[in-house]
Amino acid sequence: xxxxxxxxxxxxxxxxxxxxxxxxxxxxxxxxxxxxxxxxxxxxxxxxxxxxxxxxxxxxxxxxxxxxxxxxxxxxxxxxxxxxxxxxxxxxxxxxxxxxxxxxxxxxxxxxxxxxxxxxxxxxxxxxxxxxxxxxxxxxxxxxxxxxxxxxxxxxxxxxxxxxxxxxxxxxxxxxxxxxx
Length: 181
Description:
Layout: E1 4-8, H1 11-14, E2 22-39, E3 50-68, H2 73-84, E4 90-99, E5 105-114, H3 127-136, E6 138-139, E7 142-143, H4 144-157, H5 163-176
Antiparallel strand pairs: 1-3, 2-3, 2-4, 4-5, 6-7
């Protein structure tokens, strides 16, 4: 059995939650990072949903790839299914990713992409509606605003800029600055 590669583009980048032997920046083509999933559990509720990231079709996405030893492969896949498939809004796919740093390599990785046929899928929301949902969302894993800010901070640490998330983060930071008037 081969080692397992897992591609992370959101919270998996900064909180993978599984043992791995290698972590490198990587790019997946044909998909982009998007707040395109209504969160009813982790960052919101059914009554007051937040938004979480999904891979949506088109473009490319830079994130992190984690290599897991073959002996831990099944346990990590089981963990990821429990974490990512709570409401089955993500499709579990195997896709080629391009590893960065040192020798450029292409490997087959496990990725979780948003399912456009799922009721929680919400592509192409207006900016202000996205901001409203992020501000309101709070679920079992905490505030949606914290999720966005953590993601942006970790992207920036790795030299990855996401214009949509950066715009949201700037608005969320403004929310936290006390009014001095």
